[in-house]
Amino acid sequence: MHQEPEPKPDGARTERRRQFAEAARDERPDLALLCLLIAAEADPALDEAGIDAVQIELDRLAGLLPYAPVGGPGAWARNLAELLGARHGFAGSPAAYRRLESSLLHEVLRRRRGLPILLSVLWMEVARRAGAPVYGVALPGHFIVGFGDPYGEHTLADPFAGGRPLGDDDAALLVAGATGAELSARMLAPADPLDIVLRILNNIRAWAQARPEQSAVQLWAVELSLLLPSHPARLRHERAQLLVQRGEFMTGAAELEEYARVVEAVEPATATTIRRQAAAARALLN
């Protein structure tokens, strides 16, 4: 059973979160760094030296790829599949969905198992370092990668399946299997790095939400999401409810009241309900 890690000292956590907020506002966000700062919330042992070691390993893997291979996007995809899928054994499994480690980049690198989105991040970061024209594709329910021009000649691959090449028909089957929807051109557009980070945090929140004993994990995933330049406003409500659930009644009540002020102009009835929740939280102190 997964054991919840001991909380980091406040100073270390504050500094990590400052780094995360700063990295998220860079003109070109460093996806690997952001993923590693997420992992550092879960793993107190992942310090600055550990983060540097992961970046060095990504560089090393990139150095094993042929430079500018003949054959365009398809050659890049085949070379990544050979290196990461066949030689190093990176792939997914049903068990990956049951483990928090499957959403932590340093653990995915160590265990060679992870969720589709984390394996895709690994592929993207190795490929990018090697000079490949690579991008993420945020299909509903199953993240994949693309090589080449997303609006022209390109090749799709599924890192969760060891790098299996995908045609548009294959991508349509993935979408239909996950959501029942039809594939659209919009779904095949390159994913924004910060959208990828938010999706990873959403996965962690969903993992923890299904396990009430992991409310601390859900809380830090929400709090990191709130540090992104763009995030759903409802996350503030979720954070307030988690604080109350964890016994931080005054702080949670104050957060509920602040959220009520945010939504009052557009949803006055919702604001009234939230204020009642705040009053109920304060009453728990009596």
UniProtKB/TrEMBL annotation:
Residue span(s) of domain Protein SirB1 N-terminal: 76-202
Superkingdom per UniProt: Bacteria
Region annotation (Disordered) ranges: 1-24
Matches recorded under InterPro entries: SirB1_N (IPR032698)
Alphabetical list of Pfam families matching this protein: TPR_9, Transglut_core2
Family: Belongs to the UPF0162 family.
Protein name in UniProt: Tetratricopeptide repeat protein
